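Example record for the data management plan.
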Amino acid sequence: MLHPVGPLPAAVYWRRRLVVLALVAALVGGLVWLAVALLDRRGTAGGEAAAQTTAGPTELPALDRVVPSVAAVRTPAAPSVPVAAPSAPPAPSQVAGEPCTDEVLAIEVRTPGAVPVGSKPTFELLLANTADVPCVRALDKELQELVLVDAAGARVWGSNDCFPESSDDPRTLAPGELVAIPVVWGGLTSEPTCTAERTTPPPGAYAVRGRLDTKVSADAPLTLQ
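Corresponding structural encoding:
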């Protein structure tokens, strides 16, 4: 092989051999380079996977480290406070057979509503025991009084001004018992001493107020026509 045989010059055969050797060397070099590249890629991929496997937990962003998420924040519940049921106001205490207190005594005045000027209407002083037990109340005449006032609140007449009466009338009132006491008005003005001239009040709106000792009623309207 070192001495090529053929019709061509020996230099031609040597050049051909050199070209073939160069091609073979290039092919072998390419195969070696390809194998090395594949091995290098596998090693890099394995290293990255190992790094990801052995790496610790991912660090939270700075904002998440400072401000907790809404789901992690728990609003403290308001302490449960027992709410007591509203209690009814206590009923007025009344001992059976004892004097009726003002708290258990109901008082009201009843009028005809409208009467002619100068007439002599009859009013009623109504009393009732609202307790659930009987009690005693003095219904003495001097303790009963009706007063007529005008629209401005000025006193016009009183039932005890000119014809005062007295009596001794302790009354036992059963639970719910109603007592009606009639009182007649003579249609004229008066004052407590009954020394002033008595006149006929002019037409207008008035009110009648009742009293039994220390218990006073609401005003009842009366119109003089």
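Summary line stored alongside the record: The longest strand covers residues 204-212.
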